[in-house]
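Below sits my pick:
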Amino acid sequence: MSRLRHSGVKVRSLARLADRGRTTRPLLARTLVHAALTCVMIASTIEPACIRLVAQTDVAPKRTSRTKIFTIAGAVLGSLAGLVVRSGGASKGGHGCLGIPCVVIGSTAIGAGIGFAVGHESDRTYNSRFRGVVPLRLSSVNTDLEGDPVALTAGDELVAVGGSAGVELIQESGPMTTASLRARGLNGIMAIALAQPSGWLAVGSPSGLYMFPPQAGAGALVRPGDVAAVVGGMGHMYAAVDDRIEIAPLADDTSRTWPGITVTSPVHALGIDSARSLLWATTDRHLIAYRMDGDSLVRVGAAPLESVGLRLAQSGDTIAVALGEQGVRLFDVSDPAAPRAVASWTIAHFAYDVAIDKQRLFVAAGPEGVYVVDLRTSPIHTIGLARGMGFATALASRRGYTYILDRRNVVLRRVLSDF
């Protein structure tokens, strides 16, 4: 009888332990949930405080690493998930890697890995927004655009914006009203140019080079082929067509191959130095100078590039080349036969376009906005970042103004270069 009583005590003790385990697991689960939620709340409240700090101090703040926070939160949630899953199958027993320790360790590792990935992406996105430079609040005159604009150029009196709706010609002065819409219905516009002072408009697309007379009139296809870049001169247009740079007269409407020069690498951007009769071109790996001699081009000199030269801008003896992920490279071109790299600027994640005005370099950095760099100092100094310019992909500077193509808001913005 005593043995039965003793066995009954053991059974009741085990039952109490089991009941205690069943009540402890929910308590442990609630504790883990509270810990995980605390981590998430910390992560969600730090960034607004950082943003308020930026607004008050105009300096990008230090920020607690989201990678650490979310890795910890993921590990806590993973261990909780492991306990819940293993407890649900406890009645079936488990040994080895089916036991509670192994399951919890595995789920914790998985949760930590997921948290690390999420936190790392959050930190990367934040670093794209706050690059350690002073925010600039630039006032701008804006005008709404049509369609999906991709190309921008500025002339003496008009700014031209090309895209899916055609080419919008906008008055430079005053409120920037649209003067006319040209090349309507032309698909795939990628490059545009205004020849000064004549006002002829050149439009480049994958189907060819089109010329439009000043002010009004139908355009004509003057060269079939894939046109990547175009720039206007006094009496000619210079276009990068397939593997050539060609010289097309303004008033001709004949479709044919024009005089020019064959380039061994695709040309991405063109620029004219009228004062010295030079044509500058960027390729996959070089900045090249050509002498404009009538209807021919003669190679003068070249300098290597670290990456594809997407766009270029010139002011006096300085040329800036946008290199995408490689930032911006500055060259001294006082001797065109031997262009010399003098500085690199690599703060932006991606440099889409560049413009130079008033000894200031403007860099279109896509979702980051527009960076402004002072070229008068050595080394060059980043003045700040104008995040309010939207998704900036194209720039043009002329007569004290810089024009910014904001593709996010489909807007053309005009700011004072010397603000």
Notes: The longest helix spans residues 2-57. DSSP finds three helices and 28 strands in the chain.
